[in-house]
Amino acid sequence: MNGALTAAQAMAAATARLRAAGVADPARDARLLLAHAARIEASRVTLIAPEDLPPEIAERYDHLIALRAIRVPVSHLLGEREFYGRRFRVSGDVLDPRPETEALIEAALSEPFDHVLDLGVGSGCILITLLAERRSASGLGVDLSEAACLQASANAVLHQVQDRAEIVQSDWFGNIDGLFDLIVSNPPYIARHEMDALSPEVREHEPRMALTDEGDGLNAYRRIAASAPDHLAPGGRILVEIGPTQARDVCALFDAAGLVSTTVIPDLDGRDRVVGAKMPR
Q1: Rounded to two decimals, what is the model's pTM?
Q2: CA-to-CA distance for 144 and 210, rounded, in angstroms?
Q3: Residue among 153, 171, 150, 149 nearest 162 (CA)
Q4: How many angstroms separate the CA atoms of 209 and 185, rounded?
Q5: Which residue(s) pair with 80 in the sheet?
Q6: In CA terms, which of 1, 18, 97, 158 is 20 to 30 Å from 248?
């Protein structure tokens, strides 16, 4: 992308470069990154397409495309990702919010709650979304990663729920006291032997501790199931995101812990995505 190229020419060259690098949707990524380099909304890219790119924008764009070609996620280059209609700041310190996790949000919002605990808060997208949608609620988010706690705290401020959201560094329930009427979690559920099959964007650029337990993918659920009954109010709910083959195992763990009304909720693609259960009254 050297010389005086129009925005359209630069975008075409970038698309070809990303396609050659194996990027799944090169045209979309080239468009988003051009908008970011030009500091405009993506919807306005067509308006600048016939124009020559100023040198400073061309240089920024070339740098972004070079990073995307080595599979740095678009969200990390933009510094944000959309989730449930809101934009969340993200980085390599936290798991990217994903559309399938919105199934957990819908399940949580289907019944009332006042005090929610988010185990493995990461970017804060689950906790913050729930508090933004349920303005009478308060919540606690915990994460073993200090960097994730800082990211979640920043997103809480961004979405103006910081007065109702407490973020604490904790190894699961280690630093938690009290009872909650809702516990939610998107824990690391990828088995160690599955890691090599992940895309480079995920495997090389998202925090490994948020992806895998370095075992069979069920260790987090074992710990959550063992301690959740001590932190759920009578009748309180627990909702956890799962991998599409884990429903039976996670349901069994919840049943063995004395939780009741175990249910499996699919995502929009029809795959098992969330397991829910309740504390007996």
Answers
A1: 0.91
A2: 10
A3: 153
A4: 14
A5: 89
A6: 97
